[in-house]
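Protein-L-isoaspartate O-methyltransferase, Nonomuraea rubra. Tokens?
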Amino acid sequence: MPSDNPSSVESPEFLRDAMVAELRERGAIRSSEIAAAFAKVPREKFAPEAPVSAAYSTRDTVVTRRNADGKATSSISAPWLQAEMLEAARLQHGMRVLEIGSGGYNAALIAELVGPDGLVISVDIDPFVTDRATRFLAESGYPQVKVVLGDAEHAADELGPFDVILVTIGAWDCPWGHLLAPGGRMIVPLRFCGLTRSFTFVRDGDHFAGLDPTVCGFIPIQGAGAHQEHVAALAGGTVNLLIDAGPDLDTAALDRALDGDRTERWTGVTVGHNDPFDTLHLWVAAQTETFGVIWADPQRGSDRIEPAMRWFTPALITPDSFAYLTMGPERRDGESGERRYELGVHGYGKHGDALARQLADEVVTWDRDWRQHPDPDFTLHPIDATVPAPAIGRVFPKRHTQLVMAWT
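Tokens:
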């Protein structure tokens, strides 16, 4: 049972200080103002369903609501990601801020940063979420935060403009640009082709530049902004394939493919234990509309696949065949002794070999030409704008906007 002694290693005060110290050490918190906000707001008050130690884990999300199928529909994001997004927002005293996706804790942090002269409006579609956010904010000393029940697609249309719009749910589109004041910033975890990147959008003429894309994951938006991706659950739901667009997936055919012979191709490309290679996802996504992702059920796992990473491993997917990125056994570099892993591809179905060859070729191209290259540029344009296709890249059309990824 947690101790009331503030010096106890089990107390919220101790854990809060430890969280701030860890976030500073890893670089997620870089400003004294954000450190002070995290040190003050009692995160555990907004997550009563979680043990206090879990509430203050810097890497973990706290799920606060699930639907009848057990899927999370609301959560408090991991502190490291909240800190990164707040740093990107560059909040100052007196600013007007719109938060899309409520819960209370993040809104309290924002309220600390904009001060008593600022305005914080937090919108959510779920009355369970808004009711508890309102209650927790009042109990924690932030009754000035205005919590609004409504569909984020349009609920704030009469409330702008805002200096900062901060989205804390997984958005497939970004319909809020017209609410942004001149010089404002939108922090949006935007989903495209099965991937999510948190962008800092700033106006650049007739479009927005998407700065500092950060790998992340969020619960998908509900309501008018929801987007239905193509998903096939194979092997009794333990293996999942997802692709954003194109023809529907034939789950039965893909299940049979998984039961059939497997193609293996190895690339000769290696990664170290801590090497980032998230730009590989972006490179492959830019080359083909068959790009998607694969993952095993996080609770049950699966011995049917060997993906290169736990979540959202790159895959090429057609209605009846697929190929995905895998990783070979550990081996030691002869000179440095560093642990290295070779990237390979497993293919399934009648087109599995061709898909495996294509994915392996893209891995080799990425390693040779783009691995050490700067990340691609992203821009966001109105849906009715004429946007030339990039020489190397891809345009992702949405309902209200077009996201352009260009390698230069």
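Residues 352-370 form the longest helix (19 residues).
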